[in-house]
Amino acid sequence: MTTNNRQTLGPFMNLVCFQYLRNNTEDVAGRAPIIAAGRNRGYDVVASLGLVGKMSDPTEIKDELNSVLGADGTRLCIVQQVSPLPDGGYEVHIVESACTANQQAGEPLCAFTLGVFIGAIHALTGVRMTGKELQCQACGAPQCIYQITPI
Ligand SMILES: [Zn+2]
User: Fold this and answer.
1) What is the DSSP code (8-state) at residue 84?
2) Which structural domain range is residue 25 located in?
3) Which of 16, 27, 89, 96 is close enough to 85 for a disulfide, judged by CB 3.0 to 4.6 Å?
4) pLDDT digits over 16-64, tens only?
């Protein structure tokens, strides 16, 4: 089997296409498959770096995930802050999520991006995580804030 590496177009596509996939999948099947896809993506990104189970320091997690997902990485979002929670989880502050680009919503909208952080932090720490979004830029908040907690 050959791999199509898109010699002309490379690895990026317009966010409008991502938004159609994300929003229409939610309309048809709910958020679960979008979050699951994000979780797998986040876990696999960390695994590809050989970092499974190797990181728990919040500053190291922030720097690593911002380098992989931020302006010099896949451009999923910009990671501004990662803080520890008393239960062993982390609060993650991000801006410019792909999920919220040009979107307005009455409730937090990040499903794929939230999933990526659930999966990535699971992989980095070796602890299975779940997560919820406390505030979202699609609702007019200055940042998206995710609470990622151990299962
Ligand atoms: Zn959000």
Assistant:
1) E
2) 15-150
3) 89
4) 999 999 999 999 999 999 999 999 999 999 999 999 999 999 999 999 9
For residue 142, what is the domain's CATH number? 3.30.1380.20
CB atoms within 5 A of ion ligand 1 belong to: 100, 110, 136, 144
Quote the ligand 1 centre to 75 CA distance (angstroms): 15
CA of 46 to the centre of ligand 1 (A): 22
Q: Give residue-wise pLDDT tens across range 81-93.
A: 999 999 999 999 9
- Joined tokens for residue 69: 């997902």
**Which candidate, 104, 124, 125, 101, places its Cα nearest to that of 112?**
101
Count CB-CB contacts under 10 A for residue 93: 18
* Residue 2 included in any domain: no
Distance 79 CA to ligand 1 centre (A): 12
Q: Is 1 within the bounds of a domain?
A: no
